Structure formats: structure tokens, C-alpha cells
């Protein structure tokens, strides 16, 4: 098992962290990231989540 070797595991974790941070930065800095994803549907405060919120939660779920 390759991931049981400390050096290989550390390299893999470093690559995973780098990719996750890059993906998160791209999501949060995209042009429409902070616009409301449900603005055309409803004016309810609980639906005023930005577009990037769902993408961020999906990234967190993929990591864990």
C-alpha cells in the first residue's frame, strides 16, 4: 500500500491541499460568486445564499 509510506502520503496530502485551495480560490473569486443564486425565485432571506455557497459545500463534502 503506497499511501502507508510516510513520504508518499505527505506528497499526496500536499497535492490534495494545493488543489483544494486553488479550487476554493477560483470559486470564491469568480465573477458571479457572490450574487444570489435564487434572486429570480424568491425574496425570502433564508434563500439569499450566494452562488459560491453551494459550490463551497460540495467541495467540503468531496474533501471529507
Automatic annotation (TrEMBL):
One of its GO terms (cellular component) is Dsl1/NZR complex. InterPro entries: RINT1_Tip20. GO terms for biological process: endoplasmic reticulum to Golgi vesicle-mediated transport; regulation of ER to Golgi vesicle-mediated transport; retrograde vesicle-mediated transport, Golgi to endoplasmic reticulum. It comes from Tetraodon nigroviridis. It holds the Pfam family RINT1_TIP1. This is (spotted green pufferfish) hypothetical protein.
Amino acid at each position: 500500500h503506497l499511501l502507508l509510506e510516510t513520504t508518499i502520503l505527505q506528497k499526496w496530502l500536499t497535492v490534495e491541499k494545493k488543489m483544494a485551495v486553488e479550487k476554493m480560490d477560483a470559486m470564491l473569486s469568480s465573477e458571479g460568486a457572490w450574487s444570489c443564486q435564487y434572486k429570480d425565485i424568491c425574496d425570502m432571506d433564508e434563500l439569499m445564499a450566494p452562488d459560491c455557497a453551494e459550490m463551497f459545500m460540495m467541495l467540503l463534502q468531496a474533501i471529507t
